[in-house]
Amino acid sequence: MKTVIADKIASIAQHRGLKRKLQVSAEILCEEGVLLAVRILNSKSSYNTLELTSGRMAKVSRGDIIVGALGHRKALFGYSGHLPEQLNPGDTIQVLNIGGVLGICDSVNANFGQPFDAEVLGTVLEFPYLGERIGVPARVGVDKLNMSASINTQDVPIVVLAGTSMDSGKTAAASAIISRLRHCGCTVDAFKATGVSLRRDILAMEDAGARNTAIFTDFGVVTTTEENGPPVTRMMLTQLAAEKPDVIVFELGDGLLGAYGVEAILKDAGIREAITCLVLCANDPVAAWGGVKLLRDEFSLAPDVVTGPATDNLVGTNLITDRLGIPAFNAITHGVELGDTVAEIVNLKGDLNGKSV
How far apart are the C-alpha atoms of 305 and 312, rounded to whole Å? Predict the structure, then answer.
């Protein structure tokens, strides 16, 4: 056991309450969610920031000691990597995302350049036993994932945002919907169900007016999969519904086709039956057409409204409305209309009448 001073603590360690002065162990458990201290070995001019526990983005430089968590990533637009089978102090791993996921990089995105290489310093220790200096490996999360969790939404309306890919405008749309509903007096809770640990999306939801938020990382999940995606989604739905909001809004990170468990979630009977309104975010009209077909054919779900870059102007909006027969609104330029449409679908329209905007 030795002492290290961390320069930056990634948001993935949000719930551990770590200070800069840390005790680390040379014994490293190669398990997803175990927190490590590492030293950055190279400098980068792009994709060179780390999301801190405060939510701020901080530039990372060569020589910085950071705290992240072991995990894997299978991103369409980003670094992909796997969990190492064995690690010792002095070994080199990579920083796979700006939330602090650490692993062995398998695939590089040319737009981002090479990832940060990092020298392993050791496992970050916690000391949970009062009066004793017995350290245990620190791990992400505050609640334990229950793989057999049931679902109870207590009849709270559920709005789900699914996308045709990453960067299809899901968080912008979720924020617009939350903002409109909050302006009209509704209590909105929100969460992100799938993806790789990064808190900026739920922070955006909080900024838009969400009362309570959650993310899978809160339950010790670094990266969602088809195995853990459904149970962690059921747990977040049940947990937030118990707080009696007027509506719950949640985002499915990644696309309908991907490795983060979106398909498994949409095939889960309990979750599918709980959906009151399904918003499809699409990058272009062809993606919208394919997304609608996929949702109908594979999941027996029909989108209620379309948004995303496909609706950036009237050409795309009109194509979607005319060809698919589904209302389409741009979340940036027509957020009020998008929010009002969602409110009507989930039967909150009556709650909006006479309330301030």
Answer: 15
* pTM of the predicted structure, to 2 decimals: 0.92
Mean of pLDDT values over 339-343: 96
Question: Does the pLDDT of residue 354 top 50, yes or no?
Answer: no
Closest CA to 280 of 258, 299, 254, 306: 306
Q: Give the closest residue to 166 by CA, choosing from 71, 48, 73.
A: 73
Q: What gap in Å lies between CA 304 and CA 308, rounded to an integer?
A: 14
Percentage of residues in the chain having pLDDT higher than 90: 88
Where in the chain does DSSP place strands (E)?
A: 2-5, 8-9, 21-25, 35-40, 49-51, 57-59, 65-70, 80-82, 92-95, 101-107, 116-126, 136-137, 158-163, 188-192, 213-215, 247-251, 277-281, 305-307
Which residues neighbour 70 within 8 Å (Cβ) at sequence distance 6 or greater?
30, 31, 32, 33, 34, 36, 83, 84, 101, 102, 103, 222
Percent of the chain scoring above 70 in pLDDT: 97
**Which residue carries 């040319």 as its tokens?**
110
What CATH superfamily is the domain 158-352? P-loop containing nucleotide triphosphate hydrolases (3.40.50.300)
Structural domain spans, the chain: 2-137, 158-352
